[in-house]
Amino acid sequence: MGALHAGHLALIRRARKLAGRRGTVVVSIFVNPIQFGPKEDFSRYPRPFAKDAALCHENGVDLLFNPSPEQMYPPGFSTYIDEGALGDALCGRSRPGHFRGVCTVVAKLFHILTPDIAVFGKKDFQQLAIIRRMVRDLNIPVKIDAFDTVREHDGLALSSRNQYLTTAERAQAPIIRRALLTGAKNIRTAKKIISKLIATAPLAKIDYIEILDAETLRPITPSTKQILIAAAVFFGKTRLIDNLTVAKK
User: Fold this and answer.
1) What's the CATH code of the domain at 103?
2) Can you point out the beta strands (E) in 189-225?
3) What is the pLDDT of residue 8?
4) Are β-strands 204-213 and 226-235 bridged in parallel, bridged antiparallel, or unpaired?
5) Do residues 88 and 54 share a domain?
């Protein structure tokens, strides 16, 4: 959605590696209105397009796709894609309708650009899982490549929303990553441990902490192979997400 940072540039470099010298790397920049709730930050979401375009050019992007909302959603638009199994947990629970907007716009981008491979970051783990499911279920001929979360020196996951943080909020935000790493050492008590650690940051307000099966985004079962530890935390009005996965022992 623009406001490119080092995490996005890492995805671009990954795409270039996968495409090779003769391949084409396309970046879409589109602040998607239908994935924002009525009380969310659509109007203030950063849109530094000239800077983003320059970064794309400097990093070897061949095509920058920047449609208008009117081009993506013409008058009378009424067709949406709604994944039904993974979207009601985690962020979907606190952001109703969000993933319907994500699936719809990503499906449209796939059909317009017809990529062979699409690169997504693991920071938005639920989004990644839902897009993979949509591609599988709708037989969309694209391979989804997942790239590890890119972080600041203190562990904070890179996000376009980090620029909203005040100096005090930014100083406390790395507690999310530290709490997840500590909680991962003992899955049975991870949720309690993570909650207590995040609570030590006075400006933090927990939206959710979840320990789930990484494939189904449902409670862990005997057949679970990978465990997802995920959190969403508010610092002021800024909502930050992070996660990690561990093998079930």
Assistant:
1) 3.40.50.620
2) 204-213
3) 97
4) antiparallel
5) yes
Q: Tell whether 156 is covered by a domain.
A: no
Element of type H or E holding 10: helix 6-19
- Tell me the sheet residues that pair with 65: 28
Same domain, 183 and 105: no
**Does residue 152 belong to any structural domain of this protein?**
no
Q: Which long-range contacts (CB under 8 A, 24 or more apart) does 189-193 make?
A: 190/229
Specify whether 214 is located in the same domain as 240: yes
Number of domains in the chain: 2
**Nearest Cα to Cα of residue 141 among 106, 118, 119, 116:** 116
CA distance 107 to 243: 25
Nearest Cα neighbor of 197 from 170, 219, 227, 176 is 176
- DSSP 8-state assignment for residue 157: B
Q: Are 128 and 218 members of one domain?
A: no
pLDDT in tens, the chain (249 residues): 999 999 999 999 999 999 999 999 999 999 999 999 988 889 988 899 999 999 999 999 999 999 999 999 999 999 999 999 999 999 999 899 999 999 999 999 999 999 999 999 999 999 999 999 999 999 999 999 999 999 999 999 999 999 999 999 999 999 999 999 999 999 999 999 999 999 999 999 999 999 999 999 999 999 999 999 999 999 999 999 999 999 998
Domain containing 73: what range? 6-147
Q: Are 155 and 177 in contact (CB under 8 A)?
A: yes
Is there a single domain that holds both residue 131 and residue 168? no
Domain with 178 in it: what CATH number?
A: 3.30.1300.10
Catalytic residue ranges = 8
